[in-house]
Write a structure and sequence with these properties.
Layout lengths: L10 H11 L6 H14 L4 H14 L4 H18 L5 H15 L7 H14 L4 H10 L9 H13 L1 H18 L6 H23 L4 H24 L7 H14 L5 H21 L5 H15 L11 H12 L8 H18 L3 H12 L4 H17 L8 H12 L5 H16 L8 H12 L3 H11 L13 H17 L5 H4 L16 H18 L17 H11 L9 H11 L1 H4 L4 H18 L5 H19 L2 H14 L7 H17 L2
Helix pairs in contact: 1-3, 2-4, 3-4, 3-5, 4-6, 5-6, 5-7, 6-8, 7-9, 8-9, 8-10, 9-10, 9-11, 10-12, 11-12, 12-14, 13-14, 14-16, 15-16, 16-18, 17-18, 18-20, 19-21, 20-23, 21-23, 23-25, 25-27, 26-27, 26-31, 27-29, 29-30, 30-32, 31-32
């Protein structure tokens, strides 16, 4: 190229030349400043910077460190401005990069890696030119350079559709030299490249229409696939190098999708047990690569509801379940990714083997050991989200299994996980099924943990080793989970109204749930407000038909006592009064007008005086509300029912002396009012 069309002829050319020649300054700060200046100039003159740098690298004898600095700078320029790079500059860069990365046979990633990256990026705009030049250094019956293979693999990953027309030629050359690859780094890069080729072919098939066309294209590569499969499986995957084994497994898993069904069904008999055995042989840091390979293999195995996986189903489920039952390291991104991939494996299996998989999982849910239970909860939660359509006729079975577990669960960690599962199930309308109310009860039980129990646990934890507390779910945390979930039910999962209303009233007279009374009132109050405003047909309750619900008088007497503790957490009094106002038409129509006037005033008074509230004065105000309620109803029989309800509830305040005193005071007033 005699004419350097990328030059501007202006003073900037000289400035760029000076910056390029001094880019490896001994002072790190100066070096970084020069590089940044070149990158900034590239915003207006990308071809100038790239072209002059390429020309400088080609002609000048400079240190390797200087070359590395300049190639890294070019990576940044072409990455951000590849569409603005001229044909002339692209040709210069392609020639330069291929020569640079193949100059020595020894692999030196810091030096040879940037030229390889530049070629991959240029492939976005100059795909054919890059591939033609790379193929020139991939002759038949000769082992190509490591970086030729690495660049081809990365190119296939970055631009799969562009490489498809070249793959038949590259595959045919690759399988001829595979058996002669002896060095670990050569085997690794070959396996990586072949895996990327398979990914590219799958991407290409995804864009095709018509199975005959796909089969015809696949058949052209079939012999190459089979040859590669044999070398990878029979030699490389059993070799001493861990990274080679892992890369071979990943390549084999990608080959599964393209070798053809008949060949796959022959190979899975050996491949799947080998892949599962990798978990025993390899270190945990390598599990992600193994699990990603498993997802590929399983996806092919169950495609079109095929049952080829059947003989290996139990061992596969057992192996994967034992792995997913180990909590991931939340500070390690690969550990988290591996955990998510393991969950995907169950999702894939469940698409075809839903019944046996669910039977297996429910058995694990009943395990005596906590880890299998915790792992199973995570799997079911994932499945409920991921394959809801496959579980439509299994929902009641899942509800039953979760219900059985939470009814006797003691571990706070598992209770928290179960609560999170229940939220997921609620969003998919599981809770409206038989057994759903038991799961609601469990959530309320979590929310009803007392301050006393939390304080006792906190004192005990102070004596424990800090490391033993890292993964521990405390009672305080568990209570917060329960309360947040009840709030979620009424704010983001509206379908739960169907099970919360009127079921939550059943929990009013359960003493063990008294500490959750405020949040239960808030939940019911929100639902009641919405139903009253929209005049929902199920707003009014037939208490004769709903035999498990407390009677209206029992609901009223319970709320009127509980709101006498205005300073307790979760705005007990405010939520109780709000609920009372919005269930007036439900529990006693005769008091609606009076409550609609009086209760908002009481709430306002409480809000204005909360910081310096006179508790005795507040109790007198509630006592007056009770008196006015009895007066508004004006029915001796109803008053007697109210008194009887309150009398029956006295036992609920056995451990709460303040509210027991209030209850007795209310009972005295009722007796006075009874003619």
């Amino acid at each position: 190229m005699s004419t350097q069309t990328y030059l501007t002829g202006a003073k900037v050319d000289d400035i760029v030349q000076l910056l390029i020649s001094t880019a490896n300054d001994s002072d790190t700060k100066t070096k970084n400043t020069i590089t940044e200046s070149l990158i900034q100039l590239a915003r207006k003159h990308p071809s100038l910077i790239s072209g002059m740098t390429a020309q400088f690298l080609k002609k000048e004898k400079i240190s390797r460190e200087h070359r590395i600095v300049l190639f890294k700078m070019i990576v940044d320029v072409v990455e951000n401005h590849f569409n603005a790079i001229s044909q002339q500059v692209a040709s210069m860069l392609i020639e330069l990069c291929i020569a640079e990365m193949t100059l020595e046979t020894e692999v030196q990633a810091e030096w040879q890696g940037p030229p390889s990256k530049i070629l991959v990026i240029l492939g976005r705009s100059f795909a054919e030119q890059v591939l033609i030049e790379l193929k020139k250094l991939f002759p038949s019956n000769s082992m190509p350079h490591y970086w030729i293979l690495k660049t081809l693999g990365d190119f296939a990953s970055a631009n799969p559709l562009a490489i498809i027309s070249h793959l038949e030629e590259i595959w045919s050359k690759a399988v001829l030299v595979l058996p002669s690859a002896k060095k670990d780094n050569t085997r690794w890069v070959f396996a990586m490249m072949l895996g990327r080729f398979c990914e590219a072919e799958r991407a290409h098939y995804g864009n095709l229409h018509g199975s005959e066309q796909i089969v015809a294209i696949s058949e052209r590569f079939r012999a190459s696939y089979n040859s590669a499969f044999d070398v990878l499986f029979n030699t490389w995957i059993v070799g001493p190098g861990s990274q080679v084994r892992l890369a071979s497994l990943q390549a084999l898993s990608e080959l599964c999708a393209v070798v053809g069904r008949e060949q796959f069904e022959k190979q899975i008999v050996k491949l799947l047990p080998t892949a599962l055995n990798f978990y025993k042989k390899e270190k945990e840091k390598n599990f992600l690569a193994i699990t990603q390979s498993m997802t590929n293999i399983l996806s092919v195995a169950v495609k079109d509801q095929n049952t080829v996986l059947q003989p290996f189903l139990q061992i596969t489920l057992q192996t994967l379940h034992s792995l997913v039952s180990v909590p991931p390291n939340t500070e390690n991104s690969e550990s988290i990714k591996n955990h998510n991939e393991l969950l995907r494996c169950f999702e894939i299996i469940g698409s075809t083997f839903c019944d046996p998989m669910l039977t297996f999982l429910l058995a694990q849910l009943a395990s005596k050991e906590p880890r299998p239970r915790l792992g199973t909860i995570g799997i079911i939660r994932h499945l409920v989200n991921a394959i809801d359509a496959n579980l439509l006729d299994k929902k009641e079975l899942i509800v039953f299994g979760v219900k059985s577990m939470v009814s006797q669960e003691l571990s706070n960690n598992i209770k928290k996980a179960a609560a999170q599962l229940i939220v997921t199930m609620a969003a998919r309308e599981y809770l409206i099924l038989d057994g759903g109310e038991a799961l609601i009860y469990f959530i309320v039980r979590c929310a009803s943990i007392s301050d006393t129990d939390i304080e006792t646990e906190n004192n005990a934890l102070k004596k424990k080793d800090p490391k033993s507390k890292e993964q521990l779910v405390t009672l305080s945390e568990l209570r917060g989970v329960g309360e947040n979930i009840l709030n979620l039910f009424i704010t983001t999962i509206p379908t739960t109204d169907r099970v919360l209303w009127p079921f939550l009233f059943e929990l009013f007279e359960k003493g063990e749930l008294s500490h959750a009374f405020a949040v239960v009132c808030k939940t019911l109050g929100t639902i009641a407000t919405n139903k009253r405003q929209s005049q929902d047909e199920d707003y009014l309750i037939d208490f004769d038909r709903e035999v498990n619900l407390p009677k209206p008088c029992s609901i009223i007497s319970r709320i009127l006592v509980m709101v006498n503790a205005p300073l307790r957490r979760n705005q007990l009094a405010q939520n109780g009064l709000e609920l009372l106002r919005n269930i007036g038409p439900v529990v006693q129509p005769a008091v609606v007008a009076m409550w609609d006037t009086a209760l908002p005033k009481l709430k306002t008074f409480l809000q204005n005086n909360l910081n310096n509230l006179n508790v005795n004065q507040w109790e007198e105000l509630i006592l007056r509300l009770l008196s006015e309620t009895i007066k508004a109803v004006n029915d001796d029989e109803w008053t007697m029912q109210l008194g009887q309800s309150l009398f029956n509830q006295i036992v609920l305040y056995k451990q709460d002396h303040d509210l027991k005193k209030v209850a007795l005071k209310h009972l005295g007033l009722i007796l006075q009012k009874n003619k």
